[in-house]
Amino acid sequence: MKLWRLAFFVISFLVGSVQADELSDKIKAVIEAPEYKAARWGLLIVDAKTGSTIYEQNPDKLFLPASVTKLFSCATAITELGPDFRFTTPVYRHGEVTSRVLNGDLILVASSDLTFGGRRGKTTAIEFSDNDHTYANGGAMNAKVTNTDPLYALNELAKQVANGISEVKGEVLIDDRLFLRTRSSGSGPEIVCPILVNDNVVDVIVTPGEKTGTPAVVKMRPETAYLQMDADVRTAKESSAASIFVEATGTGRFMVRGTIPLRSAPVVRIYTVDEPMLFARALFIEALRKHGVKVATSLHRPRRFDLPAKDAMGLVRIGEYHSEPLADTLKVTLKVSHNLYASTLPVLVGLKRGDGTAEAGLRQQGKMLKGFGVDPERVSFAGGAGGAQADAATPRATVGLLQAMSKHPAAKEYFDALPVLGIDGTLAEAVAKDSPARGKARAKTGTLSWYDYQNERMLLRSKALAGEIETAKGTKLYFAIFLNDMPLPRNMTAGDQGKVLGKICEIVYKHGR
Fold first, then answer.
1. Quick count: other Cβ atoms within 10 Å of Cβ 465?
2. Per mean pLDDT, which range of 80-84, 197-201, 314-318, 380-384 is the poorest?
3. DSSP secondary structure letters along 279-324
């Protein structure tokens, strides 16, 4: 080797070593701070091109991934179903039509369309709010509703029915036999079932009155006569904080109480419906009536629930609704960390394989990981959202999934669905607006915490982040960061620790190779 080439090699090696040491020192300064004495950290950062390790800390230990779990469930769904997969929700008549009068039943067959038109935007394929409405009663106290029609799909189906029918003499029914009900493994709406309208919640939108002490304006979205709302919210001083709660008082009944500051923006809370099938049925009847179809049956409950066999004679399809592509639905799932959608995905994967259970879908996920070269025994999952007690993953398995998905035909749709650091979704506020790393990372967040009653504080079981980042030098890296079991001081929140993970991203951006 010529002398100048040897010198260049030595200098490059030394510079690379210095950079690596500097990155390591900067990260250690964060994760070895005194407040993390009782906590556990797991990190792995690798070069996307070469696969070489840039930094690691307990990369093969199992950690609670929280909503980073959704990286796995969404990868399985897009691999099994394809990014262009669309749900089709049909409406059938069971009976004869004479002079536009149906002497029989109208049946909407639920397809488990996750958004069911409720997020269909006027200018974009699908819309979401960084603080999703499904979290409005919990962590996202500043939740927003999208500027969309939550009843879009039902209205479209009602229009199609109205083209040939002006009156329904029999029942209006929802066929929700696609799979058996189960439970979500995350916060928010809990019932996983084949029919979803507005995520099976009613948005309660509260606007302050014109002066202190006056009643606030409380509206439901969507508005429906099926539910009974008892609202008494008062307008408080402008300097106060909003204090609004929603409480169920019976089947289809709820009350809204509290105060809202004068001149504040509208505040969103939610009421989670307890009977999604009856909720959807009532909304469909109201949509039919809105479009000129006379319906004889009761809005609140059908006289009978008997559904014909799926292959029964006399069933005639008279309408159908087609969803947005699955890639759009997964974008909502990952951007806002939608637990109900993520909990449903393993069921849908199971259905594709002939077994409509989450367990079947998770078994298929294990087969997918093995095919990707990721050892399925290095993870443990009992649900798709990240809140199940058996959920665990290693940093190495998580990074391995990202590496495998980068080579997948649906790589663009998968990575485009991730929140962008400092820009949108659950990463919108992870770094400051002037952060040099803003917009340079795409990653899935995760948060899981429980209240420690003995010590009157929160125990942060997991704060996690995994995805890809482009460094200041233009190098793409894949990373997984898990912080587990940190007792939070009373003046600290899980969101504060989210900013700490954002700080690590800034370090990686600046000092990564």
1. 29
2. 314-318
3. HHHHHHHHHHHHTT-EE-S-SS--S------TT-TTEEEEEEEE--
On whether both 146 and 279 belong to a single domain, the answer is: yes
Q: What is the DSSP string of 71-87?
A: HHHHHHHHHHH-TT---
Q: d(Cα 213, Cα 211) in Å, to the nearest integer?
A: 6
User: How far is residue 23 from each of residues 10, 33, 175, 475, measured CA to CA in Å?
Assistant: 20, 16, 57, 14
Q: pLDDT of 12-55, one tens digit each?
A: 444 455 556 899 999 999 999 999 999 999 999 999 999 999 99
Residues 406 and 341 in one domain: yes
Nearest to 441 by CA among 418, 414, 463: 418
Do residues 77 and 389 touch, judged by C-beta distance below 8 A? Answer: no
What totals of helices (H) and strands (E) does the chain contain, helices first? 10, 21
Domain range holding 401?
Answer: 24-81+328-511
Burial code of 81-108, b = ≥16 C-beta within 10 A, e = fewer? bebebbbebbbbbbbebeeeebebbbbb
Element containing residue 25 per DSSP (H, E): helix 3-31
Distance CA 375, CA 359 (A): 18
What is the bridge-based pairing of β-strands 315-322 and 88-98? antiparallel
Question: Cβ distance 177 to 98 under 8 Å?
Answer: no
CATH code (residue 385): 3.40.710.10
How many distinct structural domains can be found in the chain?
Answer: 2
pLDDT single digits (tens) 443-493:
999 999 999 999 999 999 999 999 999 999 999 999 999 999 999 998 899
Give the tens place of pLDDT for each residue, 137-170: 975 568 999 999 999 999 999 999 999 999 999 9
Residue 7 counted as domain residue? no
Q: Please check whether residue 430 is in contact with residue 453, taking contact to mean a CB–CB distance below 8 angstroms.
A: no
Counting every residue written for the chain, the total comes to: 513
Cis amide leading into 65 (omega within 30): no
| SS3 category, 244 | strand
Element spanning 5, H or E: helix 3-31
Q: Is residue 19 part of a domain?
A: no
Query: Position 125: which residue type?
Result: A
Q: 3-class SS at 479?
A: strand
Claim to verify: residue 389 and residue 277 sit in the same structural domain? no
Residue at 218: amino acid letter: V
Residues 157 and 290 grouped into a single domain: yes
Contact at 8 Å (CB) between 314 and 186? Answer: no
Asked if residues 343 and 115 have their Cβ atoms less than 8 Å apart, the reply is no
Task: Give the phi and the psi of residue 310 in degrees, each rounded to 5.
Answer: -60, -25
Is residue 425 one of the residues assigned to a domain? yes
Q: Are residues 335 and 402 in the same domain?
A: yes
Label residue 15 left, alpha or beta by phi (over 0 means left) and psi (-120 to 50 means alpha).
alpha
